[in-house]
What does this fold into?
Amino acid sequence: MSTNPRDMPRREGAFEREPARRVFASELRECRYQFKEGEDEKSPTFVLLPTGERSNRIFIVGTLTEKSRQGEQNIFYRGRVVDPTGTFFVMAGSYQPEAMQQLARIEPPQFVAVIGKPNLYQKPDGAFMNSVRIESITVVDKDTRDLWVLDAAKQTLDRVDSFNAGTAPDVIKAKEQYPTIDPAVFRRAAYDALAQIKM
Amino acid sequence: MDYSEAAERISRKFSFSGQAVDVKKIEGKLRRLVDEFGVQPQEAERSVTNELNKEFNIPAAGSGGGGRAGSTNEQKKIAEGLPGDWVTIEGKVVALSAPASPSIAQSGIIADESGAIRFVAWAKSNAPAMAEGSWYRIESAVVDEFKGVPNLKIHSGTTIKEIGEDRSLIPTPMPIKDLHTGIGAVRGKVIQEWDASHERMLQSGLLGDETGTIKFVIWKEPGREKLVVGSVYTIFYAQIDEFNGRLSLNLNTATIMQEEGDIPVSGGESEVRGSIVHIAPGSGIIKRCPVEGCNRALSRQNYCPIHEIQPKFVYDLRIKGWLDDGEKTHNILIQRDVVESLTGITLDEAKQIAENNPLGMDEVFLQMRDKVLGRYIICHGREIDGRLLVNECERVKFDASEHAALLNRAGGAS
It folds into this structure.
């Protein structure tokens, strides 16, 4: 059972939990800007999605295609979760013991639902790398995957629409941070993802 | 330091209103405050003035009544009395309640056609005891505020006369959403009964009408009876308090009439659709305290915070967690029958798992988590204190028309 304080709802009621954004792999892959709200050590960190929404947590459903155990002293697991648009790199370390145990038990390939925190790294060669630190991962069925594709497509389209309206502070920030990205590509990605669901 | 000037000032003030005061005595009081208690001279003057005001029942300046000279004996309707007013009212004592402290001789509710107000007669006031159901003329009482609720204070300067009135008063019930602190009348249905959170509590629960819901409380007192869940009541003279920003009805002073029939209740019910993103500890199979009216969840060591060790606990199922729609995360609490239908694990099966498995109750938690985490569901329930109490829940089904509409939307506009 969870004794991890990270999993406990802090002072229920008083606190607003960060919602889990629905985002396709092709959009998360483009993130280059990460920021912190507030000075506090515990202030949440956000990744700015190119469609102009901050995200401290994401919810994804896809296929776990591979997983691997790494590290000697500090064991951690890595995995790849694939959605219709690309791949998410997920990981769970000893700071997420429950998530690690969950991931350790799952044998790919399987449909999985992942709730986690997006993280942005810069590799020594300057390339950016987006990964998802797993809070929890469970095996789900194809129906849930299809529902997620609808959900992620709808929310992506909503974000693209408000990006085009162009007034929200995070949209303005996104336009500054991602001057070369045309959000029309995410509309296209949503279409392609939807088209992959067989009727 | 010389206090004679200030004392003179005070004495002059009171001789205006025809009161003779002893200058030497005032001087002594001022000296005591300033020299002994380190009070600022100005503040001391004010405090002595106020003390004398009280002694002579003169409304203190700045308390609201002071500005309106001669308002002392102005007869008012109860509803017109505002905190700070000195009033004379005529009304019927519609409820008496047990005094909360020995310094209170009597407390209760007095009403007229315009409304009702709680009154407190201080023991020091030597006021005659009033009888429930009789009419009185109360002269020179003060309206003040207690816990945000107007309160009629009967002090030593108040005169009370019984008057030979015998009118019946019928308050008009208000829609629940329009209720505010004070004394109010409602007509509503008891839609929920909650576990008593205090041993002095007789009953608490939720009362609803078409406009909303409100919590009610009845404290244990001779002659008080529980309300029946599902019944409709007309309630006069309930005390409406505010606690943590939420209104609550105290029915101990109220006149309660049970009614025949049913009324529609709509308030509070909400629907949330999303995916379950977290199952909190304390979900799955839990043990509850078997003591009548307690029902608290026990710790792993079968320990109830009130009734200590309870080896004869009762099992129950629940899921506490977060339902997330991508924009907002909702705290949800799913009760037993809904947990059973959502997870497909009945209470009996859960008991079996808990008793025959090395992980015990944790195994139930894990199995339930694996069955619901990350799934899309629609929850119906009532939101209380920021948490949705789920009484109905279904899995979201794939909707081909939604799929088609989204394809059009994604392919269309660009």
